[in-house]
Design goal:
Elements: E1 2-8, H1 15-25, E2 31-37, H2 44-51, E3 54-57, H3 66-72, E4 79-83, H4 94-100, E5 106-110, E6 117-119, H5 122-139, E7 150-154, H6 155-165, H7 177-187, E8 192-196, E9 198-200, H8 209-226
Parallel strand pairs: 1-2, 1-4, 2-3, 5-8, 6-9
Antiparallel strand pairs: 4-7, 5-7
Helix pairs in contact: 5-8, 7-8
Length: about 230
C-alpha cells in the first residue's frame, strides 16, 4: 500500500486542482491521498471536504513540516511520499519514485543534477544554489538538493527519522525539516537516491531568499550538533 500527503497552508485557490492532478497521477496504484491542512485560515479544509479527499486539519501552525510529519507518522502504508501543493514538481514522478523504493530507503527529487530542468527567476536560482553549496561543503552533506518538494520513503525509515527529530514546537526548524531529515539519514547510512526532475517555480510558493538563508543558519548549527 502507498500513501501520498499534500501539505497545504491557505491553498484554497489551488487545492482542488492540485488534488485532481495528483489523483490522476496515482491512478492504478493502491494509494491513499491525504491533504495536511497546516492551520490554514482560509477555506482549504472546506474545499477538501467538498471534493471528498481525506484532510487532516491542525489548529497550531503554520509549521511548514512539523504537522506533515505528525500526519505521516500515523500512516499504515509501506511506502509514503509527500509533494508540495504548488506542484512545482509534477506528480507524474510519484509512481516511479515508489518503484525505486524497492531498492532505496529514500528517494528525493532534485533540481540541480545535470539532467534536471528548472524554470525559475535567475536571482532565486542563484541564492538557492548558494545555500545548497554551503550545506554540502561546510556541513558535509552529499545531497545536492535538500529542499525540492517531492520525497518518498520506506515506512520504517521515515518513522525512525520522525521519532528522532521530534516535533519542534518552537518552529525554529521551519522549512529546514527536509534538510535535517536528510542529514540525519546520511549519518545513519540510509540509502538515498536523488532523481533529476523538471521543476517549474510556482507563483504560489511561500519560500523566499530570506527563508533559504534561515535554513542555512539552522542547518549550520544542526551540523555542529550532529558531529
Amino acid at each position: 500500500m502507498h500513501s501520498v500527503y499534500i501539505p497545504a497552508y491557505n491553498e484554497e485557490k489551488i487545492i482542488k486542482a492540485t488534488v485532481s492532478t495528483v489523483a490522476a497521477a496515482l491512478k492504478g496504484l493502491d494509494c491513499k491521498l491525504t491533504v495536511v491542512d497546516d492551520a490554514s485560515t482560509d477555506k482549504t479544509a472546506k474545499i477538501c471536504s467538498e471534493i471528498g479527499v481525506d484532510c487532516v486539519s491542525y489548529g497550531f501552525g503554520p509549521t511548514r513540516r512539523e504537522n506533515l510529519a505528525d500526519a505521516m507518522r500515523k500512516s499504515e502504508a509501506d511506502k509514503i511520499a509527500y509533494i508540495d501543493a504548488d506542484l512545482s514538481v509534477k506528480p507524474a514522478y510519484l509512481p516511479g519514485f515508489f518503484k525505486l523504493l524497492d531498492e532505496f530507503d529514500i528517494v528525493i527529487s532534485s533540481r540541480y543534477l545535470p539532467q534536471s530542468k528548472i524554470k525559475r527567476k535567475i536571482w532565486r536560482d542563484v541564492f538557492s544554489r548558494m545555500s545548497s553549496y554551503f550545506i554540502r561543503h561546510y556541513i558535509g552533506s552529499k545531497i545536492i538538493d535538500h529542499q525540492c518538494g517531492l520525497k518518498a520513503f520506506r515506512r520504517e525509515v521515515l518513522f525512525q527519522l520522525i521519532d528522532e527529530m521530534g516535533y519542534d514546537k518552537t518552529l525554529n526548524r521551519g522549512w529546514a525539516w527536509d534538510t535535517e531529515m536528510l542529514l540525519r539519514a546520511q549519518k545513519k547510512g540510509i540509502k538515498i537516491l536523488e532523481v533529476p526532475v523538471e521543476w517549474n517555480e510556482s507563483r504560489h510558493t511561500s519560500v523566499d531568499v530570506f527563508t533559504d538563508w534561515r535554513m542555512v543558519a539552522y542547518s549550520f548549527t544542526l551540523g555542529k550538533r550532529l558531529k
